[in-house]
Specification:
It is a single chain. The chain has 487 residues and is of the alpha+beta class. The protein is built from 16 helices and 17 strands. The strands form four sheets. Strands 1, 3, 6, 8, 9, 10, 11, 12 and 13 form a nine-stranded mixed sheet that branches. A four-stranded antiparallel sheet has the order 2-7-4-5, with no helix packed on it. A two-stranded antiparallel ribbon has the order 14-15. β16 and β17 (452-453) form a beta hairpin. It is globular.
């Protein structure tokens, strides 16, 4: 008679949905339509700048207040490493944002300036500067400027805290909600790109044609479970084309990310994209639901992250990095990483005022059992949020990967891969009995909260990491073999 299988916790189950996002379309576009267009191109021999007037008459009070916001931004790519500086000047006061544009790396960039309508102010002057060390070809799309006038932002007081937090740059320029595309003097027709519709704001916004995981206006839908099998999220009906199919097919064959497929009528994405642009997702989905999440759900997420950190350290024989590093070197870990990266964000190159404002990134993702250690990366808040659990190869251009490898000491073959921590997976398999019977049955992990226990999610996440390995196995089946439950 076969022995009964018992793990001390339930197999993974999904919590009953409590809150509905109200994920309704804002018009005719469903989020599954695409337009194939041409970018604009600038041939630059040296440093170049362009200025744009933003009339004060266009200023509108936002957030049910007297705050008006002038903004400028768009999506840019260059064939050389260049720097782009966006600035806005009002009443002689200038603010700016700097972006390091790495060769062949499409970037969403933007800058804004808040002004109080109760004060006297002149027309705003917006400026874009290209700083070059050698001639470059720069292409761009959806470039615009103006005062923000999105109706929902005008009326909502709560929207201000979501708009203006430290991570706001991750949604630039989407959250400006501009519809006009303006030309920079000297521009000509550029390369082929494609856009996808947002089912909320009804705009067509760009998807990165060269790397799906380096997101522009839309976040990916399926990552660890790719390929995305949700048709609405991964298959886009081509509504219009600015060029003929021969040119389009050539780009999909020779230039674009091989994860995109084009058949003349539709574009299929390997990872898929959200139906809403990043700004609409932020304001009208996440902001509406996050405060409705129960304390148990927030605690469960935190438990899962801590469990992965603890598990990876235990498997690899490591201690908590802060204490261990202080004992070994006499230095503070945060300050060490901050200084090692030159006190600036490695991704965007913007200075970080002090170590307390730095965000420590695992470099190789924790979700794939890479613990926080001396290979950590210094990022700003926005870039750290954008990276999330993305592998470095899907977040940085090739030249940056080489630099990151040199700084962190992670071999280039590892930092350029998309594989989980194989050392941890080997130890996981060797210690499967301890993982199932001791680690996953910790009282905090098996406590039921809202009908679900953290151990379920932890196990599910561990198995997803294992599945991404070329040497994958089923964790519970390995445990059953040891227990004699299966032959």
């Amino acid at each position: 008679m076969a022995k009964e299988k018992s793990y001390g916790f339930k197999t993974p189950v999904r919590r009953t949905t409590k809150n509905i996002s109200g994920n309704k379309v804002g018009g005719d576009l469903t989020g599954s339509e695409s337009e194939i267009i041409l970018a604009k191109r600038l041939h630059l021999e040296g440093n170049y700048s362009a200025e744009f007037l933003i009339p004060k008459s266009e200023a509108i009070g936002l957030f049910n207040s007297t705050i008006a916001i002038a903004a400028i931004g768009g999506y840019f790519i260059s064939n050389k490493n260049i720097e782009i500086v966006l600035s806005i000047t009002i009443n002689g006061i200038s603010t700016k944002s700097q972006y390091a544009l790495n060769k062949g790396h499409f970037e969403a960039i933007g800058h804004d300036f808040e002004v109080d309508l109760l004060t006297e102010f002149e027309n705003a002057n917006a400026k874009i500067e290209f700083i070059l060390t050698e001639p470059a070809i720069v292409e761009y799309t959806h470039f615009s400027k103006g005062f923000i006038s999105k109706e929902e932002l005008v009326l909502s007081e709560d929207a201000y805290k979501h708009y203006s937090n430290s991570k706001k740059r991750i949604c630039f320029p989407e959250q400006f909600y501009f519809n006009e595309n303006i030309l920079i003097n000297g521009s000509n027709k550029g390369s082929l790109i494609f856009t996808k519709s947002c089912n909320r704001c009804q705009r067509y916004l760009p998807i990165n044609p060269y790397n799906q995981r380096q997101q522009l206006a839309f976040s990916n839908h399926c990552t660890t479970k790719a390929p995305c099998t949700h048709n609405g999220f991964s298959i886009y009906e081509v509504i219009s084309k600015e060029v003929d199919d021969k040119i389009i097919l050539n780009s999909f064959t020779n230039e674009f990310d091989k994860g995109y497929l084009y058949n003349g009528n539709t574009i299929k994405s390997y990872f898929g994209h959200q139906l809403e642009c990043k700004a609409c997702k932020k304001f009208f989905v996440n902001a509406a639901l996050n405060h409705l999440r129960s304390s148990s759900q927030h605690r469960e997420d935190a438990l899962r992250r801590r469990a992965f950190e603890l598990l990876s350290c235990n498997l690899l024989g490591l201690k908590w990095v802060y204490h261990e590093f202080r004992e070994k070197t006499g230095l503070e870990f945060d300050k060490f990483i901050y200084d090692k990266f030159g006190k600036k964000c490695f991704k965007c190159d913007n200075p970080i005022a002090n170590a307390n404002e730095m965000h420590l990134d695992h470099t190789m993702p924790l979700s794939h059992l890479y613990p926080l250690d001396e290979t950590a990366t210094c990022l700003c808040a926005g870039c750290n949020l954008a990276k999330s659990d993305i592998f470095p190869v899907d977040f940085y251009p090739e030249e940056k990967l080489k630099t990151l490898s040199a700084i962190t000491g992670i071999p280039i073959e590892i930092i350029s891969s998309r594989t989980p921590n194989e050392k941890a997976l080997i130890k996981l398999k060797e210690n499967v009995k301890w993982v199932v019977e001791d680690f996953l049955t910790h009282p905090e992990y098996i406590k039921e909260r809202d009908g679900k226990i953290a151990a379920d999610s932890i196990l599910h996440s561990i198995q997803k990491a294992i599945n991404n390995s070329p040497n994958s196995y089923n964790l519970l089946e390995e445990y059953d073999k040891i227990k004699g439950l299966i032959s």
